[in-house]
Write a structure and sequence with these properties.
The structure holds 2 protein chains of 2 kinds.
Chain A: H1 2-17, E1 36-37, E2 51-63, E3 75-82, E4 86-91, E5 100-104, E6 110-122, E7 125-132, H2 134-137
Antiparallel strand pairs in A: 1-2, 2-3, 2-5, 3-4, 4-7, 5-6, 6-7
Chain B: E1 7-11, E2 25-27, E3 36-39, H1 47-55, E4 60-64, H2 68-79, H3 87-107, H4 111-129, H5 136-142, H6 149-166, H7 172-184, H8 194-197, H9 205-211, H10 214-222, H11 230-238, H12 259-274, H13 285-294, H14 302-313
Helix pairs in contact in B: 2-3, 3-4, 3-5, 4-6, 4-7, 6-7, 6-12, 7-11, 10-11, 11-12, 12-13
The chains are: A mainly beta, B mainly alpha.
Chain lengths: ~140, ~325
């Protein structure tokens, strides 16, 4: 029990020490308060329900695109939503579709994802939608 | 016999008198009649034949589809390098002869063919467009203004290369890369149903959403290839981004938009405005230039717009 608590503190410290330069819009002051299922809306044709997952995670680009070399260092990101198909998070820089990432979630789980879409919210705040890589989806 | 074959029209001005032809030429003097053999291969077309056809109002002959490759080879070897023909006219001939193979590649499921065709056509177009004699206004004169994917892609390619050269990019390798990127910039539109692309009325919100996916769809398809540079990929991905951040797919601002994508944006809109669309008549060049100028800074890089206006107003 003590070990588990110790591990979780270590993880939290490690996540907190990853540089995170995301600047949240002022209007999102309740960003970290959201939790639970995300209500669907008329015309929403998503196959799986989505859930708020607000916290700090770490992200590294593990398979860059041939034309855009990247370093493999860890960055702090803010997780946003999760579903059976993918994860959405905020990052301070633009990511490109088909870049493959490793994410260490706030609870310590590791996910391998591929960028599906990226949208700029404001300077130093990009909303990144990813899909779980096939091998990660089955585990 | 002749009408069992498939025939492809070829412009009379793409044939040089007194040169050996490795393909048969057919003539259709009446649109209601089948084509008839006019000149067998290796039997040269003479000066007086061309004159007499022109005088009869005939501006194209036919070749069999099976001999299209020989025709393309002939035009590339004989006509494109002929410096007695104005550059803009040689551009038009090259564009016309490449049409079938380029469209075949564009409509195939295989992006490899498309990239290969784009790179080969781009190299040839750049050789022509970089010729010192080229006047952009002359290029505009020979552009086809009926809207179809091929016309738009080759127009954007030619304009984009001319604009890149006008802003001072002199390296032929870079210009050929820009030309190929321009030919590929709308590759994602292969996923947009024709019925939406050719819709005469306003698009619904759902249809707009589908059309707006094309930069990302194109990028998705090409991003993992090692034979395209980052600038070319950004022409595909960012040609609908705007300096004011109101573009798509990302909504980035001017400093994050690749310079080659900024070039592509200016000429893409210029060509879209000056060609005939199902829902709009073509705009005269001066009105299209005025539109670019009005929206410089918001939708387009203002320096590129000024450069394009100056290039278009230059006369021989």
């Amino acid at each position: 029990m003590l070990d588990r608590g110790h591990e979780s503190t270590q993880l939290a410290n490690w996540l907190a020490s990853r540089p995170c330069r995301v600047e949240l819009p002022e209007a999102w002051d309740d960003y970290f308060d959201r939790a639970g299922p995300i209500p669907s809306f008329p015309g929403d044709n998503r196959r799986f329900p989505r859930y708020y997952i607000r916290g700090r995670a770490a992200m590294a680009i593990i398979d860059a695109l041939p034309g855009k070399p990247r370093d493999e260092s860890w960055h702090g990101v803010y997780t946003k939503e999760i579903s059976r198909e993918g994860l959405r998070f905020l990052h301070s820089e633009q990511l490109f579709p088909r870049e493959k990432l490793q994410i260490i979630m706030p609870d310590g789980q590791t996910r391998i994802v591929e960028v599906a879409r990226c949208r700029r919210v404001q300077p130093a705040c990009y909303d990144v939608k990813t899909r779980f890589a096939p091998e990660a989806r089955t585990t | 016999m002749a009408d069992k074959l498939q025939f492809v029209p070829v412009a009379l001005d793409s044939l040089r008198p007194n040169t050996a032809l490795e393909f048969d030429l057919y003539l259709r003097s009446d649109p209601r009649q089948p084509v008839v053999l006019f000149r067998e291969q290796n039997y040269p077309l003479e000066e007086r034949d061309v004159r007499s056809l022109s005088e009869s109002g005939i501006d194209s002959l036919y070749i069999s589809a099976q001999q299209a490759e020989s025709f393309e080879r002939y035009v590339r070897e004989t006509v494109i390098g002929d410096e007695t023909i104005p550059v803009s006219d040689r551009y038009k001939i090259l564009r016309d002869v490449s049409r079938a193979s380029f469209l075949g590649a564009f409509n195939s499921d295989c992006p490899d063919r498309m990239v290969e065709q784009a790179q080969s056509l781009a190299g040839e177009l750049v050789e022509l467009i970089c010729d010192d004699d080229l006047i952009v206004a002359d290029l505009f004169r020979v552009m086809q203004h009926d809207y179809c994917t091929y016309t738009h892609l080759t127009n954007v390619c030619a304009y984009g290369t001319a604009l890149a050269a006008a802003v001072g990019i002199a390296d032929r390798t870079a210009l050929a890369a820009i030309a190929a990127g321009a030919l590929l910039h709308d590759i994602g539109k292969r996923k947009v149903p024709q019925v939406i692309l050719n819709k005469p009325g306003t698009l619904t919100a759902e249809e707009t959403k589908i059309v707006r996916r094309h930069p990302q769809d194109g990028f998705d398809e090409l991003a993992r290839r090692g034979d395209l540079g980052w600038g070319q990929l950004m022409m595909v991905y960012q040609h609908h981004e705007r300096p004011d951040g109101r573009g798509y797919p990302v909504g980035i601002e001017l400093d994050e938009i690749h310079p080659w994508a900024q070039i592509c944006t200016v000429v893409d809109v210029f060509d879209a405005l000056t060609c005939h669309r199902p829902y709009r008549r073509p705009m005269p060049a001066r009105e299209a230039l005025a539109y670019l100028e009005r929206n410089a800074g918001r939708q387009f890089n203002p320096e590129l717009v000024q450069c394009w206006i100056e290039a278009m107003s230059r006369r021989s």
